[in-house]
Amino acid sequence: MHEQDARLGHELLAWLDAAGEHSLPGPGVTRLFCSREHQAVLELIRGWMREAGLEPELDAAGTLVGSCPRAAAGEPTLILGSHQDTVVEGGKYDGMLGVALPLMALKALREQGIELPYGVQVVAFGDEEGTRFQSTLIGSRALAGTLDAQSLQATDAEGVSLAEALRDFGGNPDAIPALARDPERVLGFCEVHIEQGPVLEQRDHAVGVVTALTGIERHRVTLTGKAGHAGTTPMPGRRDALVGASAMVVEADRVLNATDDLVGVVGKLEVRPNAVNVIPAEVTFTLELRSPDPEVRKAGRDRLLSTFTGIAEQRGLALDLEQTYSAEAVDCADWMIEALEAASAACGQPAERLFSGAGHDGLAMHDLTDIGMLFVRCRDGLSHHPDEAITADDADAATRVIMAFLQGMRERV
């Protein structure tokens, strides 16, 4: 495809550029759940939904849901979509591509006069990254009927609870249980996402079909020692929480590098009192582990937490371990994989099968219905970074694949 032919791709990238403007100041895009930026971008998405022939409505969990007339009437419905929120200083495409692209596909079908014989909804989930409240998949767990009400008590850095933020945003925490969908009325959930890895670029393919989503767990580790004057307290016998945490971070890196099919990161670290001349009294850090194999992940976790306990004891530090999140790996449905492959082939796009090393809303939606995912090539495999990028050609190709997929769904209705 020549660049000038990629009309849908250029229009889609313009949509995504506009969405990227709704961000906190700074590099890249920072858009948090139930924030002013979230509220502003929903106005933009409402417009996209209406262009696609869908009626938008904000649900009790902060998800913007666009429904076609058949879906609104309760007919069996295919759900497509992704999340609007980002990591701090993220990119324009992680999440938002999966909201905008199916809307562009539906808009193009509508312009061609093609009506689908089943219900369609496109959802813009509010919270997948967990950046603000450290509690992820709120919107998708609500639809699946698996949201733990306790998670609504999570607080942000300012002490605002998730429940409070939802109420201020226009949601209704008390009404979330009623959002649970009837599995008999849901045909499946399909998400489009940038690959966040280098495989498609290495193979020179615009799209790929995902076979499974990785399992993820997160822990909050808190070490408590004793503050003291950095100049007058002797080195021997110090209970320096930061030194202990540093030893744990190094050990985590060593174990992760030595274990096949296990990746992880210490992504956040807080030091108190965080003063230049005071021995650190308390350190809290996060540990995230990911693996497609739950036994590998469990073994890595047990090894690391046991080592952390030993380091704390050796250095006279109190240790508190809290698991804050867990989601097991899930498989994409065979029929969805095959349908996306067939749609890719119909569009002249090679689409090899890939495993996703990232977590997505599909982890929650799998409890409700069959899931599928289409990957789109991203430059240098880069994600969670201001330099995230896709081409108009690839955006166009992926949009046309989803158009073909939607039309091919006629056979399952």
Automatic annotation (TrEMBL):
Annotated residues for binding of Zn(2+) 1: H83, D94, H193
Residues that, per the record, bind Zn(2+) 2: D94, E129, H384
Keywords: Hydrolase, Manganese, Metal-binding, Zinc
Co-factor binding details: Binds 2 Zn(2+) ions per subunit.
Record carries keyword Metal-binding: yes
The keyword Metal-binding belongs to this UniProt entry's keyword annotation: yes
GO MF, one annotated term: hydrolase activity, acting on carbon-nitrogen (but not peptide) bonds, in linear amidines
Cofactor: Zn(2+); Mn(2+)
NCBIfam families: hydantase
Quaternary assembly: Homodimer.
UniProt record similarity statement: Belongs to the peptidase M20 family.
The protein's name in its UniProt record: Zn-dependent hydrolase
Source organism per UniProt: Halomonas halmophila
Organism taxonomic ancestry: Bacteria, Pseudomonadati, Pseudomonadota, Gammaproteobacteria, Oceanospirillales
